[in-house]
Amino acid sequence: MKPYTRIFEQSCFNLNKDILQHFNALADQDFKDKTHLFNGRYENLYLPENKIPGLKHIIEVARKNAAEILAIEPNELLYGFWLNAMQPGDVTTAHTHDDSDELLSGVYYVKVAENSGDLIITAGGEKIQIKPREGEFVFFKPDVLHEVSRNESHESRLSIAFNFGRTEKN
What we know:
By secondary structure, the chain is an alpha+beta fold. 17% of the residues lie in helices and 41% in strands.
C-alpha cells in the first residue's frame, strides 16, 4: 500500500454544512468521552453516531472505502471514530494508531479553511504534507506517524477520524 490514499465523495461533501451546523449546536454533555488533552484541547471528541444527522452516512462511506483499500468485505470491518475540532492556533500532536487490531486509519474533512493545518505523515523516513480538502477522505496505515500542523487561519476546522479493524470470525 502506498503511504496514503485520497478519495473525494460528493455524497459526503453535500452533508458537510448540516454536519457542521449540528456539531456547533452540541453541548458538552452530548459527548460521551473526550481524550488526548494536549495544549489545553481535547484532540478526540467521541459521540454516538446518531447524534449528528448524516454522520452515519459518512461512516458507512468510510467503511466501504476502507474495505476496498484492504480488499475485504465492508461487513468484515469494525470501526471506531471521533471528531477533531481545531481552533485557530491548535495543532494535533504526532502519534500513531498502532494497536494490533487496527488495519487502516483515516480522516474525513468536514470544514477546512485556508491554512487551517495540513496532515503530515512520516513514511519511509520522509515527511509528506497533505493539504486537506472538504469532502475528502485520506486513508493511511495505522502505524504511520501523523500529525496536523498549526491552524493558522482565523476559523475553526472540523474533521472525523477513523480506525478500522477486522471482525472476529467464528
